Each structure stands twice: as structure tokens, then as C-alpha cells.
């Protein structure tokens, strides 16, 4: 693989984090992702290094295995490193023989709180926050439970640079008026959920 600058590897790492979240593996689920998607072919440490953009080269075999784990077509790593986009694979049936005693278990669907914690992690990494600051923020907000207070939603918006509507959409608030939410142009003055939460 060609040599790419550190910024390119960090860009790839952020793309990999986003892709892992798209595949249903939220914040702090690298281990589950590695086990379920990689079958032990790559270590959690290698996946962590890839997603953090910590190294500037990997063997071709590692790149090929990682592309398959993230369900990207061959050559997607080089495309992202070169400033392009990955080529996600269309889901195809897997023709692997499972051991006779294996019981198929569907992956757990992430909760809204887990989804938003994963999203916050990626957004804060994009904004240049370090791992410690991100983990500290997520812990201080009590995530991955679903934030229900207006103050939590505001703090998440400030930390991620996102709009309040974007955060509410991530929390599954599709019809803001049905939740009796008032969002004036100057910001949120009152957010009253079905349970009567007010700022």
C-alpha cells in the first residue's frame, strides 16, 4: 500500500468508526464487532489502532481483512486514504458452515442512548477532542442511557456542534409538536416531553 500522511489515516479512522456504528456496533462495542465480524482474524487492539489512526501502514492482509469486516469493497481503504469515499458492499448471504452446536443469536439493537453516545464519540473526534475528554463528557452525561433533560440536550449540542433538531432526531423525536416542544429561533426555551420535563 502507498504511503499516506497521518491526517489521511485519521480520516480513515473516523470513517471506520462511522461505518462500525452504521453496522449496529455502538460506542465501546469494538470487542463485539471484532468477534462477530472478524471471527478473531484481527485483534481488538488492531481495530482500535485503525479507528484511532495511530499507525501509518498495515500489511495488505490486515487491510483486506479489515475491509471485509467493515463490509467495504476491496480498495476502499486506499480510496479513503486518498481523499475519496469507501465502496460499501451490498449485504450478501454468508456461505460459512457453522459448527453443529452453535446457536444463532441476533445482535442486540442499540438503544437510543447507545446510538447517541456512539454518535457523540464520532462527532467529538471529528472536532479534535481527545479520547479522555470524550469519555469524560459521555460519563458526565450518564450515557448510554437516553438523555431526557433539556440541559443534557443543550450540552450535547454544544460539545458536538450539532443542531438541537439533529439531536432530537437521533433520540427518535419525529414529531416535535406531539412532544409539546417549543423551539424558538433563539434556542430552546421549553422542552416538555410526555412526562412533563421542563428546563
Helix and strand topology:
Layout: H1 6-22, H2 30-38, H3 44-52, H4 60-69, H5 76-81, H6 112-126, H7 131-140, H8 150-160, H9 164-170, E1 181-182, E2 190-191
Give the overall silhouette. Answer: globular
Number of strands: 2
Task: Strand order, main sheet: write it out.
Answer: 1-2
Helix content: 40-55%
- Report how far the terminal alpha carbons are from each other: 53 Å
The whole-number mean of residue pLDDT values reads 75
Strand content: under 5%
The number of distinct structural domains comes to: 2
Question: Would you tell me the structural class of the helices and strands?
Answer: mainly alpha
Count of discrete alpha- or pi-helical segments spanning 4 or more residues: 9
Largest sheet: 2 strands, antiparallel
What does the radius of gyration come to? Answer: 19 Å
Poorly predicted residue ranges: 91-98, 175-199
Reading the helices and strands in chain order gives HHHHHHHHHEE
